[in-house]
Amino acid sequence: MILFIYPFGKRIRAVAPKAHTLAEVMHARHGRSSQLMLAGSNIVGSVISLTSNFIAGGALVALLSPFSFGQGVLAVAVGVLMYTLWSGFRASVLTDFAQVVAMLGAVAIIIPVVFFAAGGPGMFTQGAGNLTPEQSNFFSSDAFLNQGAPYIAAVLAYAIGNQTIAQRLFAVREDLIKKTFVTATVGYGATVIGIGMIGVMALYLGISPTGGDVNNLIPQMASTYLGPVLLSLFFVMILGALSSTADSDLSALSSIMMADVYGKNIATKPNPKTMLLVGRITMIVATAAALIFASQQMDILDLLVFVGALWGALVFPVIASFYWNKVTNRAFTTSVVVALAVFIPVRFSWFSMDGVTGILFDILSAAGIGIVLGLMVFGFFGLKPAKIAGAVAALASAPFVIGFLHDYTVLTGSLVAYAVSTIVCYLMSVRSKQDFDFALIKQRIGDYDPVADDASNTPDDDLDGATLSARK
Amino acid sequence: METILLTVYVLIWPVIVAGVLWTVCRGFFKDWSESRKAGRNII
After folding, report:
1. For a tag on chain A, would you pick the N or C end, based on fewer CB atoms within 10 A?
2. d(Cα A72, Cα A450) in Å, to the nearest integer?
3. Chain B within 8 Å of A382 (Cβ-Cβ)?
4. Measured in whole angstroms, how far is the alpha carbon of residue A186 from the centre of its chain?
């Protein structure tokens, strides 16, 4: 899904070359409420992501060392905080290379080793009886509807809602955006699916996660089938991999607080030194919050799918704001608020889906399928093919969705978030008389570090319109 | 036949990941070498 975001990334970079966060661009495009809405959802998402990584670290330490889950969480949190606090995004980038080598290395080495140590191809014939008919079906609709489809919908929203991905859109050299995102797509996809193969092997081997906690399954398989040397390597590799995500989350959170909260809403004249202090305090507070949440030991996949679905409410309003000059601040804000107000009760089954209510939400879900596919096609091929693909997908899925899909609340919640935000944003914008000039975004977004810029620019040229007006 | 397909299905991902790892490492060391020659920081 990362692949589908790079055409939007090229547009975002063209419209706002000096931006640091998507929320900052929304401030220039719409105003404060849209910016804070996007920044707020980014903060929620990054704290949840940070929590997930601390939980994974705690589970790993608890299973593979004499230390407890709580001690593991604390060690990972303090370790990541220390080096990120010391050098911020620079440390995140520097450690990223070592961590990506660790993460990809773990998949490339550990999976084949576990596979052959667990009996090789023979496990598939001997262990076939351990699978239910649904588990042995490669095209299981139950697996797709409960996990695959919600994950697809969630990951598309990640690139918009997750500042750790968005900040790479702004950080990557413009001529390398396509190459970077294609490599990331192949690498990320193969890594995630590859790690999933440990779950497939566990199924055939009849291994259940310790204490019924699926977070324990991977370290449990590693400790069963790896020797001491490879087990230590696995331990270091996985800790490195999850530290990589955690430090990106800390950098993302500090960017949001520096650029979107302090830079745009508190300071009249942003001071780079104060910004740095704000960023560092954010990292400490976020780590403390994630430590508290991590102590609840929630299911990591559930957390990630939840936050992805939450971000689904933002995808259409954000993307439309970069292409459609009629989208207003009110349309953006209202559509996101309404979508969230519908998504949360659906996701947590706060009301019955019996009868007409279920049918109504199924119709919205069919529209959501069309919107997700339409957005994917739009990035690559433009508006007309996107409209056709979206309409065909919605109509073709309707007979299979209506009267049925509302039983899968995770998927329904995601699709409804997409559908409601799109419908509300479209209806409120289509008759709007606004004719936004996208060139204004470039003028309104400032650079907080004018020293590095071209000498022809005076510092004032680098400050945004709001700051300049505040100075006058 | 099913056993062979399942084996390929499980082992294909580490192979793809190894390919990506090689691409990333090659790119990193190329950039590192260029930045050292030019006397500037890689980031």
Report:
1. C
2. 42
3. no
4. 17
- How many residues would you count in chain B? 43
Closest chain B residue to A97 measured between Cα atoms? B28
Q: Tens digit of pLDDT for each residue in A359-405?
A: 999 999 999 999 989 988 998 899 999 999 999 999 999 998 898 88
How far is the CA of A295 from the CAs of A225, A290, A299, A397, in angstroms?
29, 9, 12, 41
Distance CA A378, CA A373 (A): 9
Q: Do A105 and B21 touch (CB under 8 A)?
A: yes
CA distances from A234 to A21, A93, A139, A199, A253 (A): 34, 22, 31, 16, 29
Chain segment A199-255, per-residue pLDDT in tens: 889 989 988 888 777 778 888 888 888 888 888 888 887 887 788 778 888 888 888
Distance separating alpha carbons of residues A387 and A258, to the nearest angstrom: 38
N-term to C-term CA, chain A = 45
How far off is chain B from A202, nearest CA to CA, in Å? 12
Q: What is the ipTM of this complex?
A: 0.89
Distances (CA, A) of A214 to A207, A297, A383, A440, B3: 11, 11, 42, 49, 26
Find which of A3, A94, A97 to mutate to test the B interface (most B CBs within 10 Å of its CB).
A97
Which chain B residues are Cβ-neighbours of A197 within 8 angstroms? 9-10, 13
Rg of chain A over Cα atoms, rounded to whole angstroms, equals: 23
> Please, what's the b/e burial string for A392-416 (b: 16 or more CB within 10 A of its CB; e: otherwise)?
ebbeebbeebbeebbebbbbbbbbb
Long-range CB contacts (< 8 A, 24+ apart) of A464-467? Answer: A464/A28, A466/A264, A467/A268, A467/A269, A467/A270
How close does chain A come to B14, measured CA to CA in Å?
4
